[in-house]
Amino acid sequence: MSSLTVDIKKKNFPKSGLKETFTVIENLSFDITNNEFVCLVGPSGCGKTTLLNIIAGLDSDYDGTINNQSSKLRPSYVFQTPRLLPWRTVLENIQLATQPDASLASIIKTLQSLNLGDHLHSYPHHLSLGMQRRVSLARAFCLPSNLLLMDEPFVSLDQANANKARGALLNLWHEKPRSILFVTHDLSEAITLADRILFLSAPPSHIIAEVNISLTRTERTPNQVNAFKEHLKTSQPNIRPFL
Ligand SMILES: Nc1ncnc2c1ncn2[C@@H]1O[C@H](COP(=O)(O)OP(=O)(O)OP(=O)(O)O)[C@@H](O)[C@H]1O
């Protein structure tokens, strides 16, 4: 069953300083099924953040429809930066977003599963960027949402910390299943994480290719991920610019 149906006919932005507009998204449609992990890959400036903002309900100035099956629950959103309030502790930052839905015990359990159990009362400036990103991940999973939007959440982490964060994300997703739409520029990351990858064109952006990841979760070692990328080079000529 679909948990999200997206059908955007057109999204325009004004050209800076001019009365004209330009079209950033045109005729872009896709579905996400319940608890599916979908990655969105596309060139810089093609409208990936704009698309997430539309799905999150932060931008309503577009022509089209977004149908979130569980419309009573807003999607949760992990932004490119952790967006933690510096004057609140880790626990307070999460409670601020989740009250009154999540129990203290369940927030603590989620933080412990991300190795943050010793930092419940730490302030964000006492944490590394990787730790702050894990707090924002915990906050998203403590919300009772059926859909999680993620905008390049691990982009500025070094490889070791990004790998740790990806592992933590997959563990949480198994514990608390939900549909995920994850934006990334990194095709290896997309192959590591996704059930399915959608590739977007340059603006006016639309879907130019869709790939199901046939590897099982345990098969997704760096070697297998590279081999899968090689296979895409020959099987999906449309996506060569991303390889
Ligand atoms: N509020 C706005 N007003 C005018 N133009 C905007 C606005 N927001 C975004 N844009 C433009 O729309 C286009 C798409 O921006 P968006 O941030 O969605 O791209 P993106 O694919 O997420 O980029 P990146 O991968 O670099 O993060 C860009 O040309 C950007 O300059």
UniProtKB/TrEMBL annotation:
GO terms for molecular function: ATP binding; ATP hydrolysis activity. Residues 8-227 form the ABC transporter domain. The keyword Mitochondrion does not apply. SUPFAM superfamilies: P-loop containing nucleoside triphosphate hydrolases (SSF52540). Transmembrane segments: none annotated. It comes from the Bacteria. Pfam families: ABC_tran. InterPro entries: AAA+_ATPase (IPR003593), ABC_transporter-like_ATP-bd (IPR003439), ABC_transporter-like_CS (IPR017871), ABC_transporter_ATP-bind (IPR050166), P-loop_NTPase (IPR027417). The keyword Transmembrane helix does not apply. Keywords: ATP-binding, Nucleotide-binding, Transport. Belongs to the ABC transporter superfamily. PANTHER family: ALIPHATIC SULFONATES IMPORT ATP-BINDING PROTEIN SSUB 2, TAURINE IMPORT ATP-BINDING PROTEIN-RELATED. This is ABC-type nitrate/sulfonate/bicarbonate transport system, ATPase component.
